[in-house]
Amino acid sequence: MTFLPILTPWLFWTLSLLLIAAAAYLLVKGRSAARWRYALVVLLVVLAGARPGFAGAPAPVASTDLNVFFVVDMTPSSAAEDFNGAAPRLEGMKADILALANEFAGARFSLISFDSKAKVVLPLTSDATALATLTEILTPSSALVSQGSSISVANKLLAQRLAAARTSHPERPRLVYYLGDGEQTAAASPEPFTATAKLTDGGAVLGYGTTDGGKMRDYTFGSDKPGAYIPDKANDFKPALSVIDEPALQTIAGALKVPYVHRTSTEGLGSALSKAAPTAASTAESPAGMDNGAGRWEIYWLLALAAFGILLWEVGDLTRSWRALQRPAMRGKP
């Protein structure tokens, strides 16, 4: 539980101590039901004015206040032709990035791609045109030089960029959209997204591909000149198939505490948005939303309501007492 007083903290707590001291003094001078009610009202009003609350509630945040990070799988499997029928997965990723950018118009965007290594394609910028341009020219990495990739290879770089964004603009929520198929081809196990999760305020993991798998063309010579299908050396050089690994993607989503959405077409992106609403920006120095009150479950109104109820009781008690005093006077009149 945290407190956000309605006045400057030193002034609020000074006045609160004076009010509590006055209530205590009256109780010491003589205890009565009325004075106990007065003391309780003072205590409730002071607590309500302190605005107690708990972190974690969703808070509406303007798009212009958001930092949105796209982490895109550029391994050869992103060329697998099983998105929305027989389109390459990367085409679906590109369409979703552009759709999300349109939904978050005015936000700042960053684009990070990964294959065997991760790199920043676009640093944080409010230039949506730059994002669209760089997204359109994304191309799967070459199968000829691929040495296996990890689905967590972008983890450290992403954590660094998130930390830098938090330092420069701690008030801005940071959304992470991870787009990939979850296929782990590196020998080592994926590393946990622990550090990244602490810096993430929302987003989603978007999965692409099917359980039947898709054949992959080689893009060694560029996006405009896709080559032959990548062969599977262990299967008589027939076209290799890439299969989505949804449990792996769900593990990433669970670590980041964001929803997982399986994308099979460019339609229905609303589910990735409706479940990915950010809480207020989290910082290492203070719990989520403590700077401005957003992202908190406020309970001051319960205390204020209780104080109001006691005051109504007091007004009713005074009214009954006044009427009782009026009755003898009325009887004495001719």
UniProtKB/TrEMBL annotation:
Keywords, alphabetical: Membrane, Transmembrane, Transmembrane helix
Pfam families xrefs: VWA_2
TM stretches of this protein: 6-28, 35-54, 299-316
SMART domains to which the protein is assigned, alphabetical: VWA (SM00327)
Superkingdom of the organism of origin: Bacteria
VWFA domain boundaries: 67-256
Record bears the keyword Transmembrane: yes
Record's protein name: Ca-activated chloride channel family protein
